[in-house]
Write a structure and sequence with these properties.
Blueprint lengths: L5 E3 L12 E5 L5 E2 L2 E3 H4 L10 E3 L8 E4 L11 H15 L2
The structure holds zinc ion (2 copies).
Length: 94
Amino acid sequence: MSEDYEVDYEVNCPYCGHTPLHNRFCANLFCDEGFIDESEDDPINFIPGELVIPCPDCKGTGVEWWCPKCGRNLSDNKRLRQQFKELRKLQDFD
Ligand SMILES: [Zn+2]
Ligand SMILES: [Zn+2]
């Protein structure tokens, strides 16, 4: 298992105030851009597209964010989400 992740000083943890926060593209094998098609996990009971759920690791965002200090998963934090989006936009232009 690789422990690759990005470190971002532009955001801080809403719970403990820690910065930097860590992020990486979601490592969940079934995750496709933040969503999981249940048929990938259970092809017997589901047909593709029948049940698509937000990924529990990245909360439907495709990118996992977490605080290395308090250990919280911050992927679904609404305030941070907007900041994450802006940051990714900037990174895309690099
Ligand atoms: Zn995911
Ligand atoms: Zn924290």
